């Protein structure tokens, strides 16, 4: 069955916006619907004007809403995730929501699902984030759906809250005190992740697979902080700090208003290498050659980079 009508949960977020753009390109004006639910319509301003995208105000945690959203849908892309919160928050978003989605898909006859998880997930992992992600995967696998799971490393791109944050910090601070400085990551470009999502939708042979999405290079966290500062034009010294001090620093950040830069659960997650295991298929199995961070990040971190200039550069990179 051709997949034309797609429900994108989490479609207004960083990865979601890029996914919607990629799905619009995939359709090529051939019709179909891309349905994106959001708690507030204003959250979808960036994708509202995309052709075939239908922005719908809905609560995806309400099973009745989910069932209505699935009417006439051929496939679901599930991107909803959080990085910070209590154990109950992670349970609600990463475990209960997949369970509700599985029940709603079963009830409405929607079988195809591409779920974006994370590298390092395990029921015995040290953080709420990784344990809850593992439980969410298990809930979807138990439902017997036509499921593909993607496990990306940390995702970078023009609107990421990773390299951009470290670049901004270094524009303000004389040095960067850093917990988990030796933690390892294999950053992957957001466009490669969204290309993988769309490729999986179009390849039935990926049903049942777990695919690791990682870039070509492994970095320590300290390496990534330095790279962000260098590309932004204000590299600062990185000062590693012990985990005990890092946890105290994270506790203070959690107590501050707004979303914290770092939480104690993040520090727990960094105990697990955020790199591909090599035991599962990777992006190359989908015909995707992962872009190097050094080839992409200067396009949006550079001190003279404007949004219009970046978009022109991004368009060229996607065609390459």
Can you characterise this structure?
This protein is of the alpha/beta class and 320 residues long. The chain has a domain at 6-156 and 188-214 and 276-291: Rossmann fold (3-Layer(aba) Sandwich). Helix content is 42%, strand content 16%. The strands form 4 sheets. Strands 3-2-1-4-5-6-11 form a 7-stranded parallel beta sheet, sandwiched between helices. Strands 7-10 form a two-stranded parallel sheet. α1 packs across α6, α3 runs parallel beside α4 (128-142) and α5 packs across α7 (221-232). The longest helix is centred in the N-terminal third of the chain and has 22 residues, at 87-108. 43% of the residues are buried.
Tags for this entry?
12 helices, Rossmann fold, 320 residues, single chain, alpha/beta
Helix content estimate: 40-55%
Q: What is the first-to-last residue Cα distance? A: 30 Å
| Category from helices, strands and their pairing | alpha/beta
Overall morphology: globular
Rg of Cα set:
19 Å
The stretches of 5 or more residues where confidence is low (pLDDT under 50) are none
CATH architecture of the domain at 6-156 and 188-214 and 276-291: 3-Layer(aba) Sandwich
CATH class of the domain at 6-156 and 188-214 and 276-291, anyone? Alpha Beta
Strand order of the largest sheet: 3-2-1-4-5-6-11
Number of helices: 12
Largest sheet: 7 strands, parallel
- Output mean pLDDT: 92
Query: What's the CATH topology name of the domain at 6-156 and 188-214 and 276-291?
Result: Rossmann fold
- SSE string: EHEEHEHEHEEHEEEHEEHEHHHHH
Please identify which CATH superfamily of the domain at 6-156 and 188-214 and 276-291 we are dealing with: NAD(P)-binding Rossmann-like Domain
The tally of beta strands, per DSSP, is 13
Give the strand content. Answer: 15-25%
